[in-house]
Amino acid sequence: MTVPETLVDEHHEPLLDKCESHLDENRNWPTHGTYEYTSYYHSRREIVPFTDFIAMDKEFDFVVIGAGPIGAALAFKLATDNPTSRVLVVEKNWAEPDRIVGELMQPGGCQAMEQLGLQNVFSDISAVPVHGYYISYRGRQLHVPYMHDANGQLRGVSFHHGRLVMNLRAACKAQSNVVCVEGSVTELLGQMDNNRFTAVRGVRVGPQRIQADGSDECIDVCSRKLTFVCDGITSQFRKQLNERPVELISHFCGLVLEHEPVSSDTYFDGPTGTTSHVSRPTDTAGNPLPMPHNGNVMLDGVGPVLLYQMSERETRVLADIPGPFLPSESNGQLRETLRTSLSHAAPKHLYPALHAALMRALDDSRRIRCIGSKFIPATANNIDGAVWIGDALNVRHPLTGGGMTVGLWDVVILTDLLRTHDAANSQQVQRVKAQWQWRRRPRALVVNVLSVALHALFAAETKELGLLREACFEYLAKGSHYTMQPSGFLSGLLPSPMLLIFHFFSVAFLAVYLRVSDESVAYSGGSLFYRVYSAFYTLYIAATVILPVIWRELQP
Q1: Are the C-beta atoms of 199 and 384 separated by less than 8 Å?
Q2: Residues 452, 479 contacting (CB under 8 angstroms)
Q3: Exposed, middle or buried by CB within 10 Å (0-12, 13-18, 19+), for 194?
Q4: CB neighbourhood size of 214 (10 A)
Q5: pLDDT in tens, 81-115
Q6: Residue 71 φ then ψ, to 5°
Q7: Helix or strand or coil: residue 403?
Q8: Model-level pTM?
Q9: Percentage of the chain surpassing pLDDT 70?
């Protein structure tokens, strides 16, 4: 299919006829339907306080550290695949978490949820379907839709992070063979050699809040088969597996826009819910998003600015500030940087409603919430009796929203392998780990490398990177496989490292052409000799962006 660069005419009218069907009533959406575990959402009856856990049996078949999205999904799958096994989940706080990332699930992640038996997990949390990406660059716009399968266009979902986690935890709490403990895992237990674990046989559990002087009463828990470390991006146990320093790439600063819900018969075409056009930029009322029910990526700020809906009435804004250092909020430098970035990303003359909403959200926020964006490649795990999974194992830049997709497919692949092996047999488990690392690598490599490489291009801190960003936009605007295969990388649906490399260097050679022919807007001027030199220097820069990341992902 050919994807048009411009989705509205000069009068900002939709290119396709409006449809009378109401998309919000389409019961085939992953966000509609009944969630079978809704009654457990707020329930605390199934949560065991640490003080009560002390008197319980301390032997379990599986121990899961952390009940975030990956830990909760893993515990549910272990419990349903092994109904006679006891599964322990230890989480510091079972209340609804509040984060500014992890709020968009790519279609690949939705497919993983189906494989785990959690296809209804997006119901009853005001989640919104996502159909692709709207990208704005230098006053031009394009739409990158998600891929299609035999049943039509695939969709992602955006939501409040905490609500999804609570739905996943509800599924855990509903399983009779899962014990949910509110407490802290203070250390792993097992055999050590030169201060490094060679085998893990259990964990030490303490209360929610651990005293600095170590005076808290802690108890030892035995894991008969496996211990899973799923304690997230700030994992306290990652250093047992991976001692390499963490690379801080940038910071995301989060805001929330409140607006009226989208009118489905205005913004969508057909009963399958395909987005048909861009919202009218001159509208000052209603939903200010350039393209509702899509990820909106604005490339003209200090760094890329992302907008996606958490519900029909709320939109998350993530403004990227490149580099490891964040401007100070105390002296107003952070707000000034954000004001500049947001103003350039959504200029008033092009997006008056969005510009006004962004400035209002910035002015009304008492504190700017920020999170560091990191890259941590996965490391092979030879420690007997333990598996690191999710962000405890592998972290990528959140720009492409692929973290949960990678983590959930890790759960799918791992639990699929464990079904045909004896988890109590260390030799079989080591074979499972080796197969798991091999099978997870293509998807993880594509999502991880793409996130870091795209951020380097979209942040564009040099002329050469700016040229590559322009070439990337032009490449995506070509339509056909130039658009749809990169869309497959973004969505986690096309786990092909070789195809990713092909498209990335196709973009690089397009940048060479734009520079030599002097057709580039981002990097223009100079003699023919200088243009040829700078074009091939840009090719070298492209190689330095992607090849080191691939190399690190391929390391054992």
Answers
A1: yes
A2: no
A3: exposed
A4: 9
A5: 999 999 999 999 999 999 999 999 999 999 999 99
A6: -60, -45
A7: helix
A8: 0.90
A9: 89
